């Protein structure tokens, strides 16, 4: 026979803390640095889209590739096509901005980053968030995050285009510093794209028997190894695309003029 004792009303309530957190470390540093880095990327991207110096043969700035408007300089048009005409006088980069931007915005890792640094939801582990209600990603606008896998398909196309641009530069200017910057950037962009959780799931995430699909299992194993580095690749590719883009623009503006640019 067991004896039970009634719990006091105080025990049924959560501990009432008058402070936001009991943490004594600099928990605010990580979200602050993330906020600064992402803001720098957004500001640079906005400037780059409206900057007209995005092509100098054989380099084209990644933020403006592929260039699909008639306003693109001679040689900058992707495969010589300009299916969108003059694009109402708007910067050609706006035509393709939605694909890489949508992919990063809905990326699982970037969600964590900007949820914590911009929305403080929550800003760090064991730190209370200022929001009174939490609905997750079940309502507008966050329910749109569910289209991430479709942005992944677009990101594959952008990665292929940037790889093509880098190879084209390698063929026409193998000794150029810009060529190798574009090659490194293309490699990081492709690695970041392939390390995506959606890519891992599409590769073999729905298989019940790996033994019946050895090739897909090998692909899944490779993607899984990349997926473990998804966070690092997200940051590395973000900085590499800014560096590559800015470098090409400096060359196009004549700021960098040394022989092996």
What is the rounded Rg? 24 Å
Tell me the series of helices and strands, N- to C-terminal: HEEHHHHHHHH
Alpha carbon gap, first and last residue: 86 Å
Average predicted local confidence, pLDDT:
89
Q: How many separate domains? A: 1
Uncertain parts: none
Classification by helices and strands: mainly alpha
**Could you give the count of β-strands?**
2
* Main sheet overview: 2 strands, antiparallel
Order of neighbouring strands in the sheet with most strands = 1-2
State the share of residues found in helices, binned by percent: 40-55%
The total of helices stands at: 9
- Mass-distribution shape: globular
Query: What is the quaternary state of this protein?
Result: single chain
Q: In what range is the share of β-strand residues? A: under 5%
Structure, described:
The chain crosses the membrane at residues 27-50, 87-110, 150-171, 177-196, 233-252. Keywords: Membrane, Transmembrane, Transmembrane helix. This is Succinate dehydrogenase. It comes from Acrocarpospora pleiomorpha. With 261 residues, the chain is an all-alpha fold. The protein has one domain (26-129, 144-252). It is built from nine helices and two strands; from the N terminus they run αββαααααααα. It has helices at residues 29-50, 93-96, 98-105, 108-117, 148-172, 177-194, 197-204, 214-227, 230-252, and strands at 55-56, 59-60. A two-stranded antiparallel sheet has the order 1-2. β1 (55-56) and β2 (59-60) form a beta hairpin. The longest helix is centred in the middle third of the chain and has 25 residues, at 148-172. It is globular, with a radius of gyration of 24 Å. The N and C termini lie far apart (86 Å). The relative contact order is 0.13. The model has no long low-confidence stretch (mean pLDDT 89).
């Amino acid at each position: 026979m067991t004896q039970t004792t009634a719990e006091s009303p105080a025990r049924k309530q959560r501990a009432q803390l008058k402070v936001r957190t009991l943490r004594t470390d600099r928990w605010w540093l990580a979200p602050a640095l993330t906020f600064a880095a992402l803001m720098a990327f957004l500001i640079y991207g906005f400037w780059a889209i409206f900057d007209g110096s995005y092509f100098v043969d054989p380099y084209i700035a990644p933020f403006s590739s592929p260039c699909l408007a008639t306003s693109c300089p001679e040689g900058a048009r992707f495969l010589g096509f300009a299916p969108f005409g003059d694009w109402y006088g708007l910067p050609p980069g706006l035509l393709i901005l939605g694909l890489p931007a949508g992919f990063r915005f809905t990326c699982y890792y970037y969600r964590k980053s900007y949820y914590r640094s911009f929305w403080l939801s929550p800003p760090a582990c064991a730190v209370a968030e200022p929001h009174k209600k939490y609905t997750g990603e079940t309502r507008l606008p966050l329910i749109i995050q569910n289209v991430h896998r479709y942005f992944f398909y677009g990101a594959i196309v952008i990665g292929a285009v940037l790889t093509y641009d880098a190879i084209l530069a390698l063929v026409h200017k193998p000794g150029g510093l810009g060529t190798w910057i574009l090659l490194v950037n293309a490699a990081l962009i492709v690695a970041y794209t392939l390390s995506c959780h959606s890519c891992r799931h599409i590769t073999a995430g729905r298989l019940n028997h790996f033994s019946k699909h050895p090739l897909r299992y090998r692909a899944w194993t490779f993607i899984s190894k990349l997926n473990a580095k998804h966070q690092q690749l997200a940051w590395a590719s973000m900085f590499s695309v800014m560096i590559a883009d800015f470098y090409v623009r400096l060359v196009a503006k004549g700021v960098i003029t040394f022989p092996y640019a």
